């Protein structure tokens, strides 16, 4: 998974440079925060049984953004983690081993 995360960071750096160079788009993007990594504790991509795509709703609150360091804040106890854990339990998945949560999506072309 470490190689996967390095590849994501590399690609995001390239995208960020392109966005910064775009005089129209760069006005609407907050570049003060770093990339929020996906949440997973799976050892391998092949171990993942459930992919969750979403964004923590608290990112709308400017002050709370700085406290978010994992997608959907699944690294912390809270309502969203409890909800995702309930879904995993119903599907007989382990939130610690079987899921991958991200706020990025790229369709295969």
Please characterize this protein's 3D structure.
The chain is mainly alpha-helical. The protein has three helices and two strands. The chain has helices at residues 2-21, 62-65, 79-90; strands at 50-53, 99-102. The two termini are 23 Å apart.
Shape: globular
Structural class: mainly alpha
Side-by-side strand order of the widest sheet: 1-2
- Rounded to the nearest angstrom, the distance between the terminal CA atoms is 23 Å
Low-confidence stretches: none
The beta-strand count equals 2
Give the overall pLDDT as a whole number. Answer: 84
The percent range for helix content is 25-40%
Number of helices: 3
SS strand fraction: 5-15%
Order of helices and strands: HEHHE
Radius of gyration: 15 Å
Largest sheet, in brief, is: 2 strands, parallel
């Amino acid at each position: 998974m470490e190689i996967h995360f390095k590849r994501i960071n590399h690609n995001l750096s390239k995208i960020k440079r392109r966005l910064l160079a775009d005089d129209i788009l760069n006005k609407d993007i907050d570049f003060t925060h770093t990339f929020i990594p996906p949440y997973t504790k799976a050892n391998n991509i092949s171990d993942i049984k459930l992919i969750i795509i979403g964004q923590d709703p608290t990112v709308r609150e400017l002050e709370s953004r700085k406290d978010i360091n994992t997608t959907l804040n699944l690294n912390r106890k809270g309502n969203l983690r409890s909800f995702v854990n309930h879904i995993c339990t119903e599907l007989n998945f382990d939130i610690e081993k079987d899921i991958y949560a991200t706020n990025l999506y790229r369709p295969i072309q």
